[in-house]
Structure formats: C-alpha cells, structure tokens
C-alpha cells in the first residue's frame, strides 16, 4: 500500500506544481517582467514548492535527514538530471546574466549553507539570514529587469488568467502540495524501514527525485516551446530557493539536525556539480549547454545515485 501512496504523492506534487506555475506565471505577466526573471523567480519558486512542503513536513515529524537530504538531492538532480535531460532534448543557450549574477548567487548560497551546517545543525537565526538573502535576491532581480526593460519596446505575452483566477490556482496548488508532501514523506519512510535503507538515502534519491519532477517537466516543456530562459533560469532559481527558502523557512520553525555523512560527503557533491555547471555554461559570451554536456550531466547523476545505494 505504501507504494501506491508514494505514487499518488508523486502525482499530486506534479499536478499541484504545474498549477502553481501557471498561476504564478499569469500573475507575473500582469507585472510585465522578462521570461528570464519569470524563470528565476516565479517559475522556480513554484516548482520548488514541493521541496518546501516535504522538508517542512519531514522536519516537524522527526525526519531531519529527509528534510536536508531532500534539498541537497534536489539541487544535485536539478543540475545533473533536469538540465542534462533538457539539454539532450534541445541545446540551451546561456544568457550572460546567468553567469554574471544568478550562478554566483547560487554558489554563494551553497557555500554559506555548508558553513552553517558544520556544527551539525541549521538553527533559526541562520534560517532568518537565508530568508533575508532570498528577499534581497528577488527584489534585486525584479528591479534590474524592470530597469533594463524601461524605455524598450519589449513585447510581453498576455496573461492567460485573471489575477483572481491566478490566486485561486495558487491556493488550490498549495493545498495539493501539502497533502502530496504528507503522502510522499510517510510512504517513503515506511519503505525505507522495510528495506533497511536509511532516511538519508531515501531523502537524497527517492524523495529528491519526486520533488524535482516539476522542475523536470517545466524545463523540458519550456525548452520544447523554445522558452530557453525559463529552462536554465528555472534550475538556478530553484536551487537558490531550495537553500534559502526551503531550509530557511524550515529551520526558522524548527532547528534541523544534520548527520555527519551529509556534511562529509553529500554537500560536496552538491558543491561539485554546481561548479561543474559553471564550467559547462562558459564562455561568458554566447555560451551554450550542448547535447554532449547534457549527456555528461546525466552520467554524473547516474553515477551519484549508484554510489549512494552501494555505500
């Protein structure tokens, strides 16, 4: 029965994440910001909502390894699995803004995360710092976009939903994400106990993959529709939100204990693939995430998953 609940949880998270993205994008269209900003902020935060609900639920129910592992595993999966698979479908051009600001901010947040957990816990005041940094990132990104587009004859897509309908979509999606997260965490914990697998491994692999499904679907569809800025912006923005938003809010509500294997091993994999992404999106001018780079990223993900289970 746990396998059925696990599958239902995945499906609920997937469809709820999709509703949240539609509502968020419609609202952003009313404020007329670029697709890159939409991808880095609204879309990425919407697709990261499952991570927030899952990590918060796991921390409150005494499963800190799932709460932390979910974020680290999702960030690894976002870069290696999601971007890798999307680049294989269609090579992705890289905007200079992603290299000059978005990636450095993501890497800086990742390093700060590592420094904060060296004492084996993420405390409430560190969560407050994370949330403040997230607000700064959002405000600066939107302000910069509106400043650059001011005076330019930029064509914006009209919103498909009214503001009222968009808010209803977001509310419905939030309810779905809450129940989907509960099903996913509870069933994953039960399966882990049955097979003798640690909660850390479940969080890094099964739960992380499940909460990354919205990113995978959104980036693949965006690439297919040639909305390339949403594809890469979605991933970088999601990773920033996972650390600053998901862990920030969760640790403010409850301090999160961090196990030693995560500190000594998994966090370095996350930092490593983040740096690998930087190398792959170079040069600074007209960079491109080509198909062979997509295959490389996907191979890294498969090797990582294999190593986690064999250990």
UniProtKB/TrEMBL annotation:
InterPro entries linked to this entry: K/Na/Ca-exchanger, NaCa_Exmemb, NCX_ion-bd_dom_sf
Pfam family, one: Na_Ca_ex
Topological category with respect to the lipid bilayer: Multi-pass membrane protein
Protein location: Membrane
A GO MF term: calcium, potassium:sodium antiporter activity
Residue intervals of the Sodium/calcium exchanger membrane region domain: 3-143, 166-308
Keywords: Membrane, Transmembrane, Transmembrane helix
Any one GO BP annotation for this protein: intracellular calcium ion homeostasis
Domain of life of the organism encoding this protein: Bacteria
Name under which the protein is recorded: Sodium:calcium antiporter
């Amino acid at each position: 029965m746990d396998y059925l609940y696990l599958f239902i949880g995945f499906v609920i998270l997937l469809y709820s994440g999709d509703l949240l993205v539609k509502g968020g994008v419609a609202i952003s269209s009313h404020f007329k910001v670029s697709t890159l900003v939409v991808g880095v902020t609204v879309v990425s935060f919407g697709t990261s909502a499952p991570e927030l609900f899952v990590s918060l639920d796991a921390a409150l129910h005494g499963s800190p390894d799932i709460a932390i592992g979910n974020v680290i595993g999702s960030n690894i999966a976002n870069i290696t699995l999601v971007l890798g698979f999307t680049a294989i479908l269609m090579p992705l051009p890289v905007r200079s803004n992603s290299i000059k600001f978005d990636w450095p901010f993501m890497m800086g947040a990742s390093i700060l995360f590592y420094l904060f957990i060296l004492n084996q816990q993420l405390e409430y005041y560190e969560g407050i710092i994370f949330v403040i940094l997230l607000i700064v990132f959002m405000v600066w990104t939107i302000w910069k976009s509106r400043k650059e587009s001011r005076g330019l004859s930029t064509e914006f897509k009209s919103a498909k939903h009214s503001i009222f309908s968009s808010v209803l979509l977001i509310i419905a999606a939030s309810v779905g994400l809450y129940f989907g997260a509960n099903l996913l965490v509870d069933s994953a914990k039960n399966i882990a106990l049955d097979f003798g697998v640690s909660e850390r491994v479940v969080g890094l692999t099964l739960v992380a993959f499940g909460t990354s499904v919205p990113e995978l679907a959104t980036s693949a569809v965006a690439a297919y529709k040639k909305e390339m800025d949403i594809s890469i912006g979605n991933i970088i923005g999601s990773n920033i939100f996972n650390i600053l938003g998901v862990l920030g809010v969760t640790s403010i509500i409850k301090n999160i204990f961090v196990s030693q294997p995560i500190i000594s091993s998994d966090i370095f994999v996350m930092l490593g693939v983040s740096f690998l992404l930087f190398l792959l999106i170079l040069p600074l001018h007209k960079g491109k995430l080509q198909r062979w780079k997509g295959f490389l990223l996907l191979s890294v993900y498969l090797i990582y998953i294999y190593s986690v289970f064999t250990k």
